[in-house]
Amino acid sequence: MKYLQLLILFGFIVSCSGTKKVISDTETSSSAPTSVKKNKDSIVTKTTEIIKYTDSLYVPQSDNDIEIVDTPIIEAKEIIEKPEEESNQILNKKTIKIHELWDELLTKHVSKDGNVNYKSLKKEYKKLLDYIRLLDLIYSHDDFESVSIEEKLAFWINAYNAMTVDLILRHYPIKSIKDIKNPWKQRYWQLGKKWFNLDEIEHQILRKMDEPRIHFAIVCASYSCPKLQNKAFTAHNIEQQLTSATKEFLSDSERNTISKNSLELSKVFQWFAKDFKQNGSLIDFLNTYSETKISNTAKTRFKDYNWDLNE
């Protein structure tokens, strides 16, 4: 893929001998006008700097000061469906949205309650595979390891959820993810030169980011797990989205029953207890996001886990 160096600024590193100014558009959407707006917060004047693009990726035209005019946002599928040479030319001229394909699928096939319509989603299976292919292209870029923690969190949460949905669709119709042999060990997905499984992404990547709220963002396609959000996670909104997902899960009486002196909690809190005690006790964590103030002496038990498919 030497000609497909993406030059995607999913955390593009600007490195040169003189000062550069790069103006990115962090507010445009796929329906926005074709000119890219200037944003004083996205102007970089340092010689070497990681540029945070949140939801969009921008490819600079040159190493000089850049004035972006008439640079339309394109759909990710325009990159994926073209031959490498054409894709390279597109990437050199336009801006793409990182997680737009995934967001489109979620909005269309996942309810606000997190129920997934796998039957209808399967009819657009190619879009899901296109999105995973785009993740491969982004991950393959030389500068991926240098991007911000917010960008990595959004990338890996979305990747995990998209791959979980893909896993279900590969075996659908099924009643539970546990009907699949070793579901979290299956290496179906190639990013760069490596084949990943869900276990590895969760335990070796996401959990090592020391962000316990990821447990309410990634899903196991089951009734008792945190719901699949019907919007993609983005670097720009990741803090708000993680907090919202955590509060929503805690306040869901089907998954957790919380009172001052008694707790009936999801087994998520039992399985990953260590993650929730990084800055205090489990109750300290719960009190940060719970609407009910919990006593330090509250009795705790864990609910049975329902592995039925989230549809």
Task: Looking at this protein, list some descriptive labels.
10 strands; disordered N terminus; 3-stranded mixed β-sheet; alpha/beta; 33% helix; 10 helices; globular; 311 residues
Please tell me about this protein's structure.
The chain is α/β, with parallel strands linked by helices and 311 residues long. 33% of the residues lie in helices and 9% in strands. The chain is built from ten helices and ten strands. The strands form four sheets. Strands 3-5-4 form a three-stranded mixed β-sheet. A hairpin with a 3-residue loop joins strand 8 (257-258) and strand 9 (262-265). Helix 5 packs antiparallel against helix 6 and helix 6 runs antiparallel to helix 7. The protein is globular, with a radius of gyration of 21 Å. The relative contact order is 0.12. Residues 1-75 and 87-95 have low confidence and may be disordered.
Summarize the structure.
The chain is α/β, with parallel strands linked by helices and about 300 residues long. The protein is built from ten helices and ten strands. The protein is about 35% helix and about 10% strand.
Give the overall form: globular
What portion of residues is helical?
A: 25-40%
| End-to-end distance | 39 Å
Number of strands: 10
Q: In terms of structural class, how would the helical and strand content be classed?
A: alpha/beta
Order of helices and strands: EEEEHHEHHHHEEHHEEHHE
Instruction: Record the strand order, biggest sheet.
Output: 3-5-4
Describe the biggest sheet? 3 strands, mixed
Mean pLDDT: 77
